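>> Question from a student workshop board

For tomorrow's exercise we were told to take the sequence and the ligand below, predict the bound structure, and bring the output to class. My setup keeps failing. Could a helper post the expected result so I can at least see what it should look like? The ligand is fe (ii) ion.
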Amino acid sequence: MIPIPAFFEFECPVKTHCGHRALDHMPFELRAMDVAKPLLIGDVPASHAKRWRPVVNAFRDSQMTIGVVEEIPTDDPQAIVRQLAAIYRDKDCDAIVAVGQGPFIDMAKWLNLVVSTGEETLDAITSGQAIPRTIKPLAVIPSAAADGYEVSGLLRTGNEAVASVNLMPQLIFIDPRSVGQPDDIAMAETALMALTHGVETFFRSDANPMTAVYARTATRLALDALHQLSGIGERGSDLAWTVAQAAALGGCALGCGPCSTTHAIGQAIAAGGKISAAQAAGVVLSYALEHRAIANNLDNDALWGLLCDGDHYARTPDSQRGSAAFYFLRSLLNDLFDRTDGQIRRTLQDAGLTREELQDVTVLPDPLAEEGDTGDYATIMAHAWDGRPLR
Amino acid sequence: MLHVPGYYEYCCRVKVVAGHDVLERIPAILERVHATRPMIVTDRGVAGAGLIDVMTEAMGDQVTIGGIEDDVPPDSSIEAVRRIAEAYRNNRCDALIAVGGGSVLDTAKGANIMVSEETDDLMAFSGVGTLKRRLKPLIAIPTTAGTGSETTLVAVIKDHERHQKMPFISYFLLPDAALLDSRMTLTLPPAITAATGMDALTHAVEAYTCLAKNPLSDANAVSAIELIAKHLLPVMKQPEDRDGRLALAVAATLAGMAFSNAMVGMVHNIGHATGAVCGVPHGTCMAILLPYGLEYNQHRNGHLTAELLLPLEGADTYARTPRNQRAQRVIARVREMNQSLHDITQGQHPRCLRETYDRDGNAAVPFERLPDIVAAAKNDPAVFLNPEDLDDEDYRMVLEHAWAGTPLDCTRIKRG
Ligand SMILES: [Fe+2]
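>> Workshop helper replied:
Here is what the output should look like for this input. Compare the format with yours to find the bug.
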């Protein structure tokens, strides 16, 4: 159990609808927020993955007028946001329903700011003031191929980043019909990112028992999915749905809080183009945690309790819980590596990075990085390179 | 274990601010919602305990208090709502701070509807989804660590003229913030600390073991149980333990989040009826009935009850207790907690219905009243999500054992 801080604040405005026919609840939920005419927007992958249709169909018998723009590109966010804002105003819309992933959802959040505040650039919107809590309702339809920030309060575009709890979607609908059916590699990457979000937010400096609820649930769901993908667990027909849940609830756990060591390192390594940010984070996670444990900055009991079920946890002696956790995370990657013919990497070396290239990786302090995170990135990366435990 | 139902919803939109110095932050919290002249709504008990003074002192002179209404009745009524709405208007207030338990918060919610919608017809806004926009800022400050009502989007207001309880259900009724400050429960009398703590425990346990559970409500419930198991008895022995008090307040809110998403079962069902028929305080009913609910449902959800041994007694006991005895051990542990609470309060915390007394010292639940409780329980919706059905005979059996304080006879529980 994590200790209760002497002071903490918690807020998560997201209402989750999850499971069989979840989308059918959307018109009712939007009306309850006084929405009369939502604008449905979707990205190109959403249409290709057949995620878009079920969302539109959910409004069929609702007698609700909707605006729709699909197959929206993400190459020029500023211009696209401007165009979408014109459509939104022209059609008299009063809420946004976004079907897409990653940068597209960043655009949807940005669009929401533009139509709610009347300002166009992020600078103007955020200059000197907090993002108002009165911005329009945003509904997000989570995907099984996600970067994990969709449901968070973070908005990133180019080098800019804005964080506010008011940027989080008020409504999410995780319906098996609209999560898509990405291939195993994409799902494993989504789940690895969700795992990283869950574990790192659980131990973040602003963690509290309420953020821990989302962190724990996202972690459990991500591990469940990864066990299925690695062949350890039996594969269920709802695997993609589980992956989408893990990613979405991981976003709730992130909220608008600071980013962590694993993310900073993962992003920096991914910038080299040899490994995705999700895989890099997945590889780095156990080493970053172990590094923290050695610096006496991690509760091993809590970590092992987070990663395994009650029976496993209780039967592992105190003294073994830390090493059990690190071993567990590494074996999971080994199994995934085996199952995916090496497409999911166990180490940075697997991804074809050389030691020399690693030395050139500069971990830039994320604009939203956790305060005091001056971590010894070089050591963590060196161990993540060939998979050597830190002790 | 991860239990994911085919469909679930989860929402806890209320902002929680918790700590030892939250009251000092009220001016900043009001500023964030653009309010400068709050009205404080509370009841005589809270005001009499000096909690409003603690609060206003902590706020200093940074906020002008528009008025203090301290006579909310124990059952929120439409008259009280009207009176508070009028005072709010007369004093040109622009926010509400509800300090107290469920009825204080419900009354403040009702008044908020009247002043925000600028209406005199409160009942026109009853039901689900009638409210369409944000109301005036409402801040909830619970003064017991139990009900979890700060997390709910419901208000129930009694219309005495029409003899009706009118429900109001809307996300716009959620408080803008729930403030948990250890000072607000520091002086809670031992018997009330015990009863409200067991109410919170029951919220968490029923949410975890009944039918509408989901992975998020489960995580809420497990954390709440862990905190209550760790802190309730120490706080009883050392009432001034502010870390323990804060932990219990956080646990009650976590448990509130669990049950407002996953609902409750027969313990609340029979408890509501016992409270309505015999006037036994809600938390007391919960403490007495919780082990019976777990026993009665054990053939259906014993595997879930068993999992709660880990947060309740920790890893060592869990590992050492054979799998098929864990549920039994949980039930025994709840009974032990009641016994300890009974001992610490010198008998003020009853272990069975037979030990409950009214204000005049008469038995609160005479044995002859059990059939009336059965009749009331049958009409309470809380039973729908209980894992096992109950007919008249079942209710009667459970109540008789809870009355006498004897464990259920497992052979008498019908299956299916
Ligand atoms: Fe209760």
